[in-house]
Amino acid sequence: MALKKSQKSLKKWTKQKWDYVSKSDKKKPRRKRGRYLPESVRKGLTPSQKAYENRKKRKASAKGKQRAKYSKRVARKVRRA
Q1: Looking at the 3D structure of the chain, how many domains does it have?
Q2: Of 3, 11, 31, 60, which has the most beta carbons under 10 Å away?
Q3: Which residue range is the domain that position 72 belongs to?
Q4: Pairing of β 18-20 and β 36-38
Q5: Residue 19 falls inside a structural domain
Q6: How far is CA 39 from CA 21, 22, 45, 64, in A?
Q7: How far apart are CA 50 and CA 62, in angstroms?
Q8: pLDDT tens, the chain, 81 aa long
Q9: pTM of this prediction?
Q10: Is residue 34 classed as helix, strand or coil in its secondary structure?
């Protein structure tokens, strides 16, 4: 039986090595953690992009939001991953 498009996407997603941009974020409380991205995207970001994305995510979490939008460049990299 062939997989549906959503099932293929989920299978691909689970094979990616997802982790926090900053290694120390695992130990922090959830509201103080930064971005959670696939390894291919994390490696492709500059230090300033990583810092910006973490600040953006932490600011949204402090406001009680679960999601924070990606910047255009990071969003493009996440889609390609």
Answers
A1: 1
A2: 60
A3: 35-81
A4: antiparallel
A5: no
A6: 9, 12, 10, 27
A7: 18
A8: 788 988 888 888 888 899 999 889 889 988 888 999 999 999 999 999 999 999 999 999 999 999 999 999 999 998 888
A9: 0.79
A10: coil
Assess if residue 12 is contained within a domain. no
Contacts 24+ apart (CB under 8 A), 60-69: 61/30, 61/31, 61/32, 61/33, 62/31
Q: Quickly count: other Cβ atoms within 10 Å of residue 41's Cβ.
A: 23
Residue 78 resides in a domain: yes
In degrees, rounded to 5, the angle at the alpha carbon of residue 45 between the alpha carbons of residues 78 and 68 is: 55
Cβ(3)–Cβ(22) below 8 Å? no
Give a yes or no: residue 15 inside a domain.
no
Q: How many CA atoms lie within 13 A of 3 on its CB side?
A: 8
